[in-house]
What we know:
The structure holds 2 protein chains of 2 kinds. The longest helix of chain A is centred in the middle third of the chain and has 32 residues. In chain A, strands 7-6-5-11-10-9-8 form a 7-stranded antiparallel sheet. A 6-stranded antiparallel sheet of chain A has the order 14-13-12-17-16-15. A 4-stranded antiparallel sheet of chain A has the order 1-2-3-4. Chain A is of the alpha+beta class. By secondary structure, chain B is α+β, with helices and mostly antiparallel strands. Chain B has 2 domains: 51 residues; 93 residues, Roll (PH-domain like). Helix content of chain B is 49%, strand content 24%. Chain B contains 6 helices and 6 strands, in the order ααββββαββααα. The chains are: A alpha+beta, B alpha+beta. At the A-B interface, β18, α13 and α14 of A face β3 of B.
Amino acid sequence: MSEPTPTSGPEERRLHPSALVIFSADALRNAAFPLIVIVGATLFGGSLDTGALLRAAIYGGVGLAIAVTVGVVRYQSTRYYIGPEAIHYVTGALSKKVTDVRLDRIQAIDVHQGPLQRAFGVFSVDIQTGAGKKGGEIALPALVPDAVEELRAARPQATSTEPAGDEPAGPSRRLAGRDLAIAALTAGQLGIVVPVLAGAGQVLQQLFDERRGEEAVRALPHSTMVIVLAVIGIVVLAWLLSTAGAVIAFGGFTVLRDGDRLRIRRGVVQRSEATVPVGRVRAVRVVEGIFRRPFGLAALTVEITGYADEASAARTLFPLVRVRDVRAFLDEFLPELADDPSGLEPPPPRAYRRYLLLPTLLGLAVTVGAWFVVGPYAIVALIFGLAYGQARWRAAAWRLADGRLAVRSMLLARTTVLAPAGFRESHTLAQNYFQRRAALADLEVAFGKQTTARIRHLEATDAQAAWSAL
Amino acid sequence: MSPPSRRLSPVARRVWMLTQLAFWGAVTVAAVIVFISAGGRPWFLIPLLVGVTATISVPRLRWARWRWDINEEGIDIQHGTLAINRTLVPWVRVQHVDTRRGLFEQAFGLSTVVVHTAAGSHTIPLLPAQEADELRTRIAGLARTEEVADAGLERADADVGA
């Protein structure tokens, strides 16, 4: 590892030697599944004797040796140097790959620290340009802190905006203690909850089917009890998982406004730091999840161009804020996009029944279908459809004032998109046959791959005026 | 809000007619097979009738509604049959543009222009191949970066008027 020097001569740099371990671990992880299959098949394919054990050990050893070789080769062949104009990066032994990233094209330098990096006291660095590829255009998985600082200092914008040390230059806020607990308890990450529920449901069904064969009639009341208990158990389990996941993802979440960038740090196991240039933030979303809305709480997420493929946690501005504090929070950290999520205007009253119609029809269809199975209880679906339509109607609202657009809508979570209208990627006015007759129209404003502000059944004249003004 | 003025190639109607015919033809054939093998009432008449109606009416309506134009703000697109959508893609947001030609399009000498933004893509389909190529070049020329637009170098204005 060479000493970082303040002069930016084209001096060659290498990764920290721990990169060897990190690359090897990477290779092992990529090959983990086939390796397990091979070793497992050898072990359990035939009879479990010394020969099979030996062969499995040999295959495992060969796999490990290949992984370590890959690690060594990748470490040996990876070099970079910081030129006066660009960062040059060379990697690969058999097929060489050379990447040049112009210094003034660097949009962000993201720093992560996984468990391995932490063990060695190094950092994984992704150099991001606007190209929007997943991960960095240049990925350096093991750098000592000095090398990270050197990279940061190489950017031409760096002198004015980057602080010399790690001292906060602007406002910062940290999610800790009680707020972290609340954020975790109300996270309700459906991505975790649903597969668990589905998997458990399947197991349950199998159990139930086996039972039926033995004691079909007598088992029924008992089984209902078991199912109810199991469902409660699954929900509690899913909730605990979701909570633990949220703590791991958002523990120590810190947002820091630093000149024209936002620096976001988060994570317990995998610590990561993302630097987001404010100029690339296209829209802010105020997400009021179903568990948070009753308490007037929301998460703030951002749409960043070129970040669409990154993990969703990379797009969180702050995991927990009071809805009435959103304006103040944005004024402090993101005044460029600050707007108030309240005081929006609903669509005209005659749009009301249109919001109700579709979910009610769906509920009715389910009710009719389920009536033959569960009898009058099926009416629940219809009531649910009506209530959902009512909730969507109450959530729908918008405002276009002073070039700022605010659109609120609801699927499960109630989401308000706040953005300067000029940041939109495209905008669409849609009118179906019935809307034309009623002089209503939908307005759709796209801000990025993840964010499209859509509001249905506006007064056609208002929607047209907005379309022309956008 | 007057609709944009340019239309697609008149041949587009024939292409859409063929695609409608292919779709409803397949559905009808499937229904007939079910009828022959399983019996029952001649339900296959429904896709047949719907198919005939759709093949006659949808392409005409769609072609009449499909309008596009490029102006100083961006690319203006209107399309739809029952629902009419009007979209504007501003020049500063155009990332890149390409043309593509499917089987039908090659057979009829047509081409589709696809405009990509950071949020997704928008298509202007079934233009005469040469016009599509010219349009692609023109859009690529008119697409500008935000910095250029902010600096007030409105080179697009001059080009659009030409």
